[in-house]
Amino acid sequence: MAVTGDRITFWFGCNILRHAEIIRLSILLLEKVGFDVSAAGGPAYCCGTSYDGQPHAASAMSARTVSRFNDAATKEGRGTVVTWCPSCHMHMSDIMAPGNPTSFDVTHITELLTSRADRLAPLLTHRVERRILLHRHIGFATHVAVNEGVHGLLAAIPGLEIVDGPAVPGHMCSALEAVPGALAKAAQETWDAASANGCDTLTTIFHSCHRAMAPTDGRQGVALRNWVHLVAESMGLPAGDAYRDWRKGGTPDVSAIERAGEKYYEQLVEPELRKAPVVT
Amino acid sequence: MSILPPARADSTEAYLEASGPRLADLCTSCGACFDACPMVDHIDLRKSDVREVTADIRRLARGEPAGPAAVSWVAACTKSGRCRSACPEQTSGLDAMLLIRIAKQRALNVTHQLASKKDQKTFPRVKTFARLQLTDEELAKWL
User: What 3-state DSSP class applies to A209?
Assistant: First the structure.
């Protein structure tokens, strides 16, 4: 079923809040191809997928989030929820919708941008002279052909050479964290493939993969970029990557830390930023 | 584009509660899901009795205790999805990935063969990351 109308809700999820520029760039891309975007995410829009051990709480989260999207559909005409996170997308499709009446449909951002590839292509005016390894997972293909979708979007970028990386288990890197050794194995396999194929850029699709691979940026001359960073580069848009820079030893501005709360930064954020990298 | 399925229950909790026995009834313990799973070798279960492990998955989905191999297997699910396409009963309505997900939930919440590892700091952490980077307007409009 095609997206009806240009008014959409971009549901970016929770953990992507580590990567504000990815959220901003995604909204910009959707606007540039003609959509009226209302963005939503964070704990108030949690899908509940991480709460297998708290089914009642997960159920309440699902109901609340569906209710909000139903309101956006019926009161604002936003009949399509556009996802970023594969966990959210699959949870909505497989568990939230069967338990809550919905007034909207879902599509993944890569599907939506692909449907308007003709509007995106003219915007890709800058050559991006990179040979990238596209980091891929097996999962999520059950719902969205995301590997092929991102490959197709990136193939429109002039100058870009794409090597498809090994399709590692899981739907994204965070899924592997719970299984001892699984993430390290997949990350190392990906890194080794980038090196073996003479790539100068490792390109992630999802935020948790970007989070896992962030410390590798610049190692042995291989840069780390998410796919939206590359699209932005071809559009001539500046895009930083704060999380990546912090993971490599940087710190947020003092004013930002004060705003977020120094205690919260020290207890909740800094330990993550100083964790050992998964790729040795 | 995913056309969402119609609601089949009053809540996700109710849906999952009803789906466990329903999906277990559709499963024949053929083991195709187990054979297709990329995590089986990683957790060294390849030599397990496939029919016994999958029969245990059905027991878990019904809220009954299962053997250690099945419990280890559901705990190692990384949503690769190969089980779903490998399942010969998919056309009959068996979502193997959902069956295994429900089996894991039962192991956590009913048979207590898995310990819940929920990080209570997840939400406060993502909110802190948000406040580090988002403008006041973005915080107000998006979250």
Answer: helix
Q: Are B112 and A10 in contact (CB under 8 A)?
A: no
The angle subtended at Cα A18 by Cα A16 and Cα A23, nearest 5°, is: 50
- Between chains, do B1 and A62 touch, taking CB under 8 Å as contact? no
Cβ separation of B132 and A179 shorter than 8 Å?
no
Between CA A141 and CA A143 the distance in angstroms is 5
Task: Give the separation between CA B87 and CA A114, rounded to whole angstroms.
Answer: 30
Contact A3, A78 (CB under 8 A): no
Using alpha carbons, select from A85, A82, A267 the residue that is nearest to residue A175.
A85
Q: Which residue of A has its CA nearest to B43?
A: A179
A158 within 8 A of A124, measured Cβ to Cβ: yes
Q: Is A242 on the interface with B (CB under 8 A)?
A: yes
A226-247 pLDDT, tens digit per residue, is 999 999 999 999 889 999 999 9
Residues in A touching B126 (Cβ below 8 Å): 14-15, 17-18, 42-43
A4: pLDDT strictly greater than 70: no
Chain position carrying tokens 């909000």: A68
Which B residues 36-75 touch A at CB under 8 Å? 38-39, 42-43, 75
Q: How far apart are CA A176 and CA A243, in angstroms?
A: 20
A214 CA to centre of own chain? 13
Which residues does A159 contact at the CB level (< 8 Å), separation at least 6? A127, A128, A129, A130
CA distance A211 to A217: 11
Q: What is the pLDDT of residue A180?
A: 95
Give chain B positions within 8 Å (CB) of A207: none
For A4, A194, A231, B73, the CA distances from A158, given in Å and listed in that order, are: 31, 20, 10, 44
Count CA within 13 A, CB hemisphere, residue B25. 6
This prediction's pTM: 0.97
